[in-house]
């Protein structure tokens, strides 16, 4: 799709190093010439809004969960009018900015910017969230360290931005919205495929680790509700008799271990960077906090475990792959401590009962699971890579369009009017297509759909 969009006919130097050349008809303006700060208080009757890194500005859900404390004096909250831009001063460098969907109140830690006439806020929202613009935020922010920097209004209004003519801003927004809708449909299809395959994999593992491989084996009551009956010759043991668990502690280990670059494991498996190692051997890692609480992963060799992972070291005489499999079906997330950031109740987990086959059975179960799930793992891996590709594609497309590297005026003019049905499709589950069921990535189809 990006390659089919041509550059503008003529360019000029923007005078802004990170921006380079811009289309000849575009201008450059500081944000203070595009927006006016709205600093109004005393509207306690309006709903509370919040800025999310993922969804922009939204109405806060005040369901009594206690996730966030609300100021007792709502008169101190700032008013944001519908279509105002609002950003979190401390997290603007991460993209914590959005457009108010309705009149509402935002925290005093937010800046509210009212767009002036001829300014399409959705164009500038897309611009402000590009990586290049985020890089500029630091230069206009103030603070002791980067993650504590604040972008005050005085800094924001000094930042330069490219400004297309108003009708062109609208065309760019129309094109981005259309492309974004199509890309999200394909991502949802991949996500649904992954969910179905993970459920299939879970069923295979559950059957193997709770019933074994012999369909004719005699069973006995396990005494554990979620297990039901288990093979008669298996032993019921508490988890603490099989392993030792401890939280990842990189700070302590970094002082006593040799320095080197090794994979970093957190609550969701290996991370995208390396650091000093704390562990040497084969272990099972369990997510310790938040939404990843209870996730199970195998880690081998030398690695560093973050504070978001619990490291389980298995006693001798047991098969690691079998052990990881039985933990996967135990739904460890349910054994978390209720809090704003749930944490795994390790002592409670260690006292759980589980069925333990003889070592030979463990080996056969682990081998059977590997044989039956290897194809599933490959398809899931491809689908996840395709999602990453689509997200990268979307990011690059938006950046090229809002900085004038690609001309979408003609393409935007040919787009069909969006119907209610297409909007519903954007929000609903997308059916899994035939090529998806085989793990294929029809990226040409994505491009064709975006162009349509």
From TrEMBL:
SUPFAM superfamilies referenced in this protein's UniProt entry, alphabetically: DNA methylase specificity domain
- The leader peptide range reads none
Keyword annotations of the record: DNA-binding, Restriction system
- Which InterPro entries did the record assign? Restrct_endonuc_typeI_TRD, Restrct_endonuc_typeI_TRD_sf, Type-I_RE_S_subunit
Q: Does the keyword DNA-binding apply?
A: yes
All copies of domain Type I restriction modification DNA specificity, residue ranges = 231-372
Q: Map out region (Disordered) in residue numbers.
A: 409-452
Q: Which PANTHER family match?
A: TYPE I RESTRICTION ENZYME ECOKI SPECIFICITY SUBUNIT, TYPE-1 RESTRICTION ENZYME ECOKI SPECIFICITY PROTEIN
The family line of this record is:
Belongs to the type-I restriction system S methylase family.
**Protein name, as recorded:** Putative Type I restriction system, specificity protein HsdS
Taxonomic source organism: Nitrospira defluvii
């Amino acid at each position: 799709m990006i390659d089919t969009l041509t550059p503008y006919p003529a360019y000029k130097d923007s005078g802004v190093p990170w921006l380079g050349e811009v289309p000849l008809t575009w201008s450059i303006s500081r944000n203070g010439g595009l927006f006016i700060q709205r600093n109004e208080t005393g509207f306690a009757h309006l709903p509370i809004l919040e800025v999310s890194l993922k969804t922009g500005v939204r109405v806060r859900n005040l369901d009594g969960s206690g996730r966030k404390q609300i100021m007792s004096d709502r008169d101190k909250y700032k008013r944001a009018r519908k279509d105002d831009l609002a950003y979190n001063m401390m997290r603007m460098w991460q993209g914590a900015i959005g457009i108010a969907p309705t009149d509402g109140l935002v925290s005093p830690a937010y800046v509210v910017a009212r767009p002036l006439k001829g300014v399409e806020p959705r164009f500038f929202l897309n611009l402000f969230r590009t990586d290049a613009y985020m890089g500029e935020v630091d230069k206009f922010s103030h603070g002791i360290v980067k993650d504590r920097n604040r972008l005050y209004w005085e800094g924001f209004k000094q930042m330069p931005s490219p400004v297309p003519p108003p009708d062109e801003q609208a065309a760019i927004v129309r094109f981005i919205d259309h492309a974004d809708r199509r890309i999200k449909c394909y991502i949802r299809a991949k996500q649904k495929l992954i969910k179905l395959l993970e459920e299939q994999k879970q069923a295979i593992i559950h059957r193997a680790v709770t019933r074994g491989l012999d369909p004719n084996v005699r069973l006995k009551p396990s005494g554990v509700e979620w297990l039901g009956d288990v093979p008669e010759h298996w032993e019921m043991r508490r988890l603490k008799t099989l392993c030792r668990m401890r939280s990842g502690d990189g700070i302590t280990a970094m002082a006593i271990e040799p320095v080197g670059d090794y994979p970093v494991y957190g609550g969701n498996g290996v991370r995208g960077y390396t650091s000093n190692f704390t562990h040497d051997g084969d272990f099972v890692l369990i997510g310790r906090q938040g939404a990843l609480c209870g996730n199970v992963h195998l880690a081998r060799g030398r690695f560093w475990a973050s504070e978001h992972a619990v490291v389980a070291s298995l006693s001798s005489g047991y098969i690691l792959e079998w052990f990881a499999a039985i933990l996967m079906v135990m739904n460890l997330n349910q054994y978390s401590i209720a809090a704003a950031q749930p944490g795994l109740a390790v002592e409670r987990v260690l006292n759980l009962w589980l069925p333990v086959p003889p070592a030979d059975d463990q080996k056969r179960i682990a081998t059977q699971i590997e044989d039956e799930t290897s194809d599933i793992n490959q398809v899931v891996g491809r689908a996840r890579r395709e999602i990453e590709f689509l997200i990268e594609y979307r990011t690059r497309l938006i950046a090229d369009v809002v900085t004038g590297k690609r001309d979408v005026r003609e393409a935007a003019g040919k787009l069909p009017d969006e119907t209610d049905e297409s909007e519903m499709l954007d929000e609903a589950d997308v059916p899994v297509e035939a090529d998806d069921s085989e793990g294929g990535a029809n990226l040409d189809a994505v491009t064709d759909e975006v162009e349509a």
